[in-house]
Amino acid sequence: MDETDAAGRRRGSSEKASSDVLRWTPKASPTRSLLSQAVTSAGVVDLEMQRQGLASEEADAASLSSTADGILPFNVAGFNPGRPQQSDDAYESAPSLRFGSEVVAETLGEEGENYVRAGSVSKREGVFLTWKELWVTVDDGKRRRLPILQGLTGYAQPGEVLAIMGPSGCGKSTLLDSLAGRLSSNTQQTGEILVNGRKETLAFGTSAYVTQDDTLMTTLTVREAVYYSAQLQLPDSMSTSEKKERAEMTIREMGLQDSVDTRIGGWSVKGLSGGQKRRVSICIEILTRPKLLFLDEPTSGLDSAASFHVMSRITKLARQDGRTVIASIHQPSSEVFELFGYLCLLSNGMTVYFGPVSMAEEFFASKGFPCPTLRNPSDHYLRTINKDFDADIEIGSDGTSTEEAINILVESYKSSETFQQVQQVLSKICQQKRGTLEKKGSQASFITQCLVLTRRSFVNMYRDLGYYWLRLAVYIALCLCVGTIYHDIGFTFGSIQARGSMLMFVAAFLTFMAIGGFPSFVEDMKIFGRERLNGHYGVGAFVIGNTFSSIPYLLIISLAPGALAYYLVGLQKSIEHFACFALILFVCMMLVESLMMIVASIVPDFLMGIITGAGIQGVMMLNGGFFRLPDDLPKPFWRYPMYYIAFHKYANQGFYKNEFEGLTFPNIQAGGPATITGDYILRNTWEVEMGYSKWIDLAILFGMVVLYRLMFWGIIKTVEKVKPIFKALGAL
Ligand SMILES: Nc1ncnc2c1ncn2[C@@H]1O[C@H](COP(=O)(O)OP(=O)(O)O)[C@@H](O)[C@H]1O
Ligand SMILES: [Mg+2]
Fold it and tell me: Which Pfam families match (predicted)?
C-alpha cells in the first residue's frame, strides 16, 4: 500500500468528506456528452441516459468544472455535491434511490405496453441473463477440487454494459466462459444460469463471444475478413451491396478504415498490430448486432483513446438497441469506466462488488477504502483487491493488508443492501418467463455458406505458402529424383522389381507428404472452432468448403509432378494410363488430407497431430501389401482387417494394374517360359486381387475420401452432443 492510498484511506475514515479538495470526478468528463451526442445524432432519443439522470448530472458537473476545464488536460472538478457523503449512514440511506434497476422495472413492470423502443430491438425483446450461486471448480490432480468461481450471483440486462473487473487470474474469463456455456472440459460447474428466466444453452450461435485470443485468417485483409464474415452471417434477403455497406460501416465504427487493405498477418508474416486484430475480432462479432454479446478483454492492446472509442461504440450498441453486453476488462481509463452500467468486481473468484457502477465508490468508501483524490476509481478498486504482490509491499499504515481488505469487502458485500437488491431484481427477472432466445446463428442459407467458405478457403490456400505451394515445390523436386533414378526404366526382367518399387514410392511417400499442409489446416480448424461456436456456420458447410477449395490445388500437385515422374521413368505411354495414374495419386492425397482432418478433430495440437498422422500412415504403409506380401501377412489383425483398411492396398493395386496389364517381360529364370506376362506378375509376384479393375480401386479410394470426411463431420457432431452429457454426469 503506498502513501497516497493510505492517506486517502485515512482521510476517508477521519474526515469522511473532503469537499474542499479538488477531485477528479468521472462524472464531469466530456465523454458523457460525447457519447450522448453520438447516440442522439444517430436519430435515437437517448432515453436510457435521461432516465438515469445523467443529463442533469452532466449539467451540474459542467457548471462546476467550467473553470478547471480550460486549464487542465483532464477533467478536474470540484467535489460533486450531488453525490452522497462518504459515510456509512449516507451510503445506507441513499441506495434504493440510486439503484440502477430502472430497466428491469420498466421492462418487467406493470405498465406492460409502455415499453421503451430504442433502435431496432425493444428492451422487451432483449436478453436477461442471470446467474445464481455459480461455482466453477477444477481438478487439481490430487483428488481435490480447487474453486475458480465461488458462488457468484448477478445479472445482465438489455441496454447495459456489465463490466467484469479484477486482477488477472481472478476468474473473469472463466465467468464469461461459464455464462456462455464454453467452459473447458476439466472444469465443473454448479449453480443456475438462466436466460430470460429459462435454462438454455448459449453456445453454437445463440450469443456472440469475442474471446481473449484472436483467431483470424491471417492471409486475408481486414476488408476481406469482415466482408466474408458478413456474407456468412447476414441473411440472404440482404443485397450484396447492403452486406458490403454493413461491413464497411462496422470497420469504420472500429476505427479500422485506414488499414482495410492490410493483411491481418500471423506468426510468419507481420500484419496488423495486436490492438487492430482485437478490433477486427470485435467487428466480426458485432456485424449481426447480436442480442447477447460477450467480450473478453476487448480493449487489451489498445491505447486509451482507442479503448474509449471501441467501448463507446459497444455501449452505444447496447444502449441504443437494447442489447446485453458483458465485457471483462483490464485497466479501463476513467472515461471507459464511466461507460459501464454495472460492475462485477472479482477477487479470487469471489464477488467483491456487484451492482451499479455509480454505487461502487460509495460501497468502497463506506467500508473504509475511499477513492483518493485524483485517482481513477477503477484503478483504486483493482489496487485495493490485488494481493498478488503483497509480499513486496509494506502493509498500509492503518494495518490492513490486502488480504484483510478483500475479506472485509467480500464479507460486507454479502451483507450489504446492494446485494439484497441484486437478489430481488434477480428473482423478479426469473419470475417473468419471457420469450425463448432464438438462435442468433447465421441467417445465410447453407448454399451461400458453402459458396462463401469455398471462396474464402480458396483465397487462403492461394496466399498461404505452406498450404500447397511449398508442397508443390517439394513434389517437383521429389518427382525429379524419382524420374532420374528410374530414368527410362525399359522392359528388362529387372524392371519388374524397379517398377514395383517406384510405384510403391509414389503411392506411399508422395501421398504421405500431404501431411505437410497440416499446420495450415490446424489454423483453419481454430478459426472454424471459433466461428462455429459463434454460430456463423456448421460442420457441413466447413467440410464442403474445405473439400472444394482444395481440389484445384491437389489436381495441380498431382498432375504436374506426376507427369514429370511418369514420363521420365517411361511408364505406359497412353493418355488413359497416365490419367489413371494421376487420378489415383490425386485421390490418395485427398484421402490423406481427410485422414488428417480426422486427426485434427481429435488431437488439438499440430505437432501431436503430425506425429499421430505419420504414425497411422506408417502402419498402413507397412501392411499395404508391398513390404510384406498379402498372403504372408499374419491373418489375425494384419490381414483382417488392417490390410483392407489401409488405403495403400488399393492405391498400390490400382497403380500395378494400370502399369503391368498388357506388358510382357523376358524371363531369365531357369525352366520357365521365355516371356512372362504382366497378368502373371500381378497374380504371382505382387499377389494383386484381380477380380476387379483398376477403376474399381479408384472408386474404392474415392469412397474412402467421402467416408473419412463424413467421419470428421460425425466426430465433431458427436463431441458436441456428448460433451454436455458428460458434464452433467460430472456435476452430479
Ligand atoms: N481449465 C482450467 N484448468 C485449470 N485451471 C484453470 C482453468 N481455467 C482457469 N483456471 C485457473 O483459474 C484462474 C482464473 O482464470 P481466468 O478466468 O482465465 O482469469 P482471468 O481473470 O485472468 O481471465 C486462474 O488461476 C487459472 O489458472
Ligand atoms: Mg482472462
Answer: ABC2_membrane (PF01061), ABC2_membrane_7 (PF19055), ABC_tran (PF00005)
Q: What is the CA radius of gyration of the chain?
A: 33
Cβ pair 61, 53 in contact under 8 A = no
Does 187 contact ligand 1 (Cβ within 6 A)? yes
Ligand 1 closest atom vs CA 172: 21
Q: Which residues contact 76 (CB under 8 A, 6 or more apart)?
A: 22, 23, 24, 65, 68, 374
Measured between alpha carbons, how far is 160 from 48 in angstroms, rounded to an integer?
Answer: 9
174 lines ligand 1 (CB under 6 A): yes
Torsion over CA: 642, 646, 648, 650 (sign): positive
Nearest to residue 465, comparing CAs of 519, 388, 530?
A: 519
Quick one: which H or E segment has residue 99? none
Assess contact for 508 and 648: CB atoms under 8 A: yes
Q: How far is the CA of 150 from the centre of ligand 1 (A)?
A: 13
Q: What angle, 0 to 180 degrees and rounded to 10, lies between the N-to-C axes of helices 539-569 and 518-533? A: 170
Cell of 558: 498431382
- Cβ atoms within 10 A of the Cβ of 309, count? 21
Q: Which residue(s) pair with 355 in the sheet?
A: 343
| Cis before 604 (ω within 30) | no
Q: What is the 3-state secondary structure (H, E, C) of 594-618?
A: HHHHHHHHHCCCHHHHHHHHHHHHH
Task: Note the pLDDT of residue 495.
Answer: 94
Residue among 570, 466, 477, 566 nearest 518 (CA): 466
| Cα(495) to centroid(ligand 1), Å | 64
The pLDDT of residue 690: 93
Query: How far is it, in rounded angstroms, from Cα 100 to Cα 664?
Result: 92
- Pocket probe mutation, ligand 1, options 138, 148, 330, 388, max atoms within 8 Å of Cβ: 148
- Which of 45, 24, 28, 48 shows the shortest CA–CA distance to 315? 48
Domain ranges of the chain: 216-289, 446-731
- Among protein residues, the one whose CA lies closest to atom 4 of ligand 1: 138
Amino acid code (one letter) for 519: P
What ligand has the least distance to the C-alpha of 178?
1
Strand 675-677 relative to strand 664-666, pairing: antiparallel
**Helix H segments across 16-85?**
31-41, 47-51, 54-71
Q: How far apart are CA 442 and CA 705, in angstroms?
A: 28
**Residue having the nearest C-alpha atom to atom 17 of ligand 1:** 171
Q: C-alpha distances in angstroms, 405 versus 368, 402, 586?
A: 9, 5, 67
CA-angle at 378, arms to 373 and 381, nearest 5°: 85
Closest Cα to atom 27 of ligand 1: 169
| Ligand nearest, relative to CA of residue 149 | 1
Q: What is the mean pLDDT of each run of 10 residues along the chain (732 residues)?
A: 44 41 38 38 36 39 36 33 36 37 45 33 72 90 85 91 92 93 86 84 78 92 95 92 95 93 86 91 92 91 90 90 90 89 91 90 85 85 80 55 81 86 87 67 86 97 92 95 95 94 93 89 92 91 96 95 96 95 96 94 89 94 92 93 94 96 90 90 93 96 97 92 77 62
User: Contact at 8 Å (CB) between 589 and 554?
Assistant: yes
Can you tell me the distance from the alpha carbon of 648 to that of 467, in angstroms, rounded to the nearest whole number? 23
Q: Which atom of ligand 1 is nearest to the CA of 186?
A: 1
184 within ligand 1 shell (Cβ under 6 A):
yes
Contact 619, 642 (CB under 8 A): yes
DSSP letters of 133-202?
Answer: EEEEEEE-SSS-EEEEEEEEEEEE-TT-EEEEE-STTSSHHHHHHHHTT---TTEEEEEEEEETTB----
